[in-house]
């Protein structure tokens, strides 16, 4: 015979698995290609951030056999070698990113309300650089062909 177990009691609104207070959490993980080379942009507070767009293919194939591409704008506050690596990545680099996600609603100049998904990068990994089939230069080889590139092949 099986004994019924009661659910653990939660005291004072704390979560049973943690001693920290509950927080809202929205994270995304994306694998896609850089739309262009990332750019360094100053903020109004004097900090610098890196902005880039990532194209992610998904969903069913259309009549041409291609999947729809969704575009995501990403901001990164990475510093040091991580920022230098991110700024050196060329258009078309296949990337994996983890980002905090937040929906912001704002009013446009014409008075209409719009919402925008804002992604702030937490981590990233360059999976492979784009192959340039028209060039044989060493800098255009993929990460799979260049074991010293520091990038993993996908």
Automatic annotation (TrEMBL):
- For whether the record's keyword set contains DNA-binding, the answer is yes
> RNA-binding as a keyword?
no
In the UniProt record, which is one GO cellular component term? Answer: mitochondrion
* Entry-linked Pfam families: SSB (PF00436)
Domain of life, per lineage: Eukaryota
GO biological-process terms attached to the record: DNA replication
> Gene3D superfamilies this protein is in?
Nucleic acid-binding proteins (2.40.50.140)
What GO molecular-function term can you cite, just one? Answer: single-stranded DNA binding
Q: Where in the cell is it found?
A: Mitochondrion
Q: Segment Disordered: which positions?
A: 124-154
Stretch forming the signal peptide: none
Q: Which UniProt keywords apply?
A: DNA-binding, Mitochondrion
> Compositional bias (Basic and acidic residues) spans?
135-148
Q: Which InterPro entries match?
A: NA-bd_OB-fold, Primosome_PriB/ssb, ssDNA-bd
Instruction: State the protein's name.
Output: Single-stranded DNA-binding protein
**What is the protein's species of origin?**
Aureobasidium subglaciale (strain EXF-2481)
The taxonomy runs: Eukaryota, Fungi, Dikarya, Ascomycota, Pezizomycotina
